[in-house]
Design brief:
This protein folds into two domains: about 100 residues; about 240 residues, 4-Layer Sandwich (Penicillin V Acylase, Chain A), CATH 3.60.60.10. The chain has about 375 residues and is α+β, with helices and mostly antiparallel strands. About 35% of the residues lie in helices and about 20% in strands. An eight-stranded mixed sheet has the order 1-4-5-6-7-8-9-10, covered by helices on one side. A six-stranded antiparallel sheet has the order 11-2-3-12-13-14, covered by helices on one side.
Length: about 375
């Protein structure tokens, strides 16, 4: 289904004001999203073993301190979001950082990886300055279970004490993909970790990284965070400095961007990270490998511009996903960011069926 535009929420002021506006604006939607995610854990369909609601809430509550210690202002925003949406802070941690949360659940229950696992399966790329007319790109699809597509939201933020930012996310979530006014961009791929713990979830980490002025500073935020679960993070700044990090709670190998594009999907490629990667269903691993190979092929030669990245995300051979049983994963949206120029293009839903929009900054 084609939408005329992606939803945008403009918010400014204190962390409490931003969080409460987000939560209250989409309260019913966030409540339902939280309930859907809690139900997935109680059934064991994402976590590998069923868990009672009481135990789920207890586990999430035990992670509150890690979020507060990571960044007090982001924790204040998360708390206000929960108040506005009329859910608990623990439920806000679940709905916002769900794929990290289930890594922690598996560590608690000893559950295996269920065959029906339905995690976000994005394809992301870093393109160096040398291949893109002197101004590099970070671009990616955001793939998720098709029930998530209607929750896609763009936040255009002007916080009192941190840089303005454009954030691709879903309702009830602090942030998933974004770029700040200094030209620092962050993207992600989900990974399935076998070393989950009671820590801070990835969406807070993304926002924390987007408070920095350089890719190196954002990298340090990631390396020092007490992570709850596994994600791959891609970072780029306006100077073209870039990193790809397969970040697990116990190990975080860093790949620096040089003269060739970096493509990453949903399995680790570094030997040290493979040691703590949980086994994924064979068909999802094959799909991740296919997307990695296809993305590498599409960026193999020549200069890369915005249109070429649009076409990559639209690729129907592998990258732009449509929901198919049993996983029902689809490309729920996509983003293309050019840090040197602070240009941010966003697409709601499948890029092959919907248009990109150039998103202006709040003060434009």
């Amino acid at each position: 289904m084609k939408r005329p535009s992606i939803r945008i929420l403009n918010a400014k002021g204190s962390p409490e004001a931003i969080g409460y506006l987000h939560g209250s604006q989409y309260a019913e939607e966030i409540q339902q999203y939280a309930e859907d995610r809690i139900s997935l854990v109680t059934a064991g369909s994402w976590s590998g073993a069923p868990m009672t609601r009481i135990d789920i809430h207890d586990l999430a509550e035990s992670m509150i301190s890690a979020h507060r210690e990571f960044n007090e202002e982001l924790f204040a925003e998360l708390t206000a979001l929960a108040q506005g949406a009329r859910i608990s802070v623990a439920e806000a941690i679940i709905v916002g950082g769900f794929t990290d949360f289930v890594d922690a659940v598996r560590a608690e229950t000893g559950g295996g990886i269920p065959s029906e696992l339905q995690e976000d399966d994005c394809t992301a790329v870093l393109v160096p300055n040398s291949r893109s007319g002197g101004s590099g790109f970070l671009a990616q699809t955001w793939d998720m279970h098709d029930t998530a597509t209607d929750h896609v939201l763009l936040l255009r933020l002007q916080p009192d004490n941190s840089p303005a930012a454009i954030i691709f996310t879903t309702t009830g979530c602090l942030g998933q993909i974004g770029m700040n006014e200094y030209g620092v961009a962050v993207g992600i791929n989900n990974l399935t970790g076998g070393d989950g713990q009671r820590g801070v979830t990835w969406t807070s980490v993304v926002r924390g990284m987007l408070e920095e002025e350089t890719a190196n500073a954002a990298l340090q935020v990631l390396l020092e965070a007490d992570l709850a679960g596994a994600h791959n993070y891609l970072i780029m700044d306006k100077a073209g400095n870039g990193f790809n990090v397969e970040a697990m709670p116990s190990i975080r190998p860093v790949q620096e961007l040089h003269n060739d594009p970096i493509v990453h999907t949903n399995h680790v490629v570094t030997p040290s990270a493979k040691a703590v990667q949980a086994e994924r269903p064979e068909d999802l691993l094959m799909n991740s490998t296919k997307r990695l190979n296809r993305g590498t092929e599409l960026l193999k030669n020549g200069e890369v511009d915005t249109q070429r990245l649009v076409e990559l995300t639209q690729d129907q051979e592998a990258i732009c996903r449509k929901p198919v049983e049993p996983h029902l994963i689809e490309s729920s949206g996509a983003a293309i960011m050019r840090p040197a120029t602070k240009e941010f293009w966003a697409c709601w839903g499948q890029p092959s069926e919907n248009d990109y929009e150039l998103i202006g900054w709040a003060d434009d």
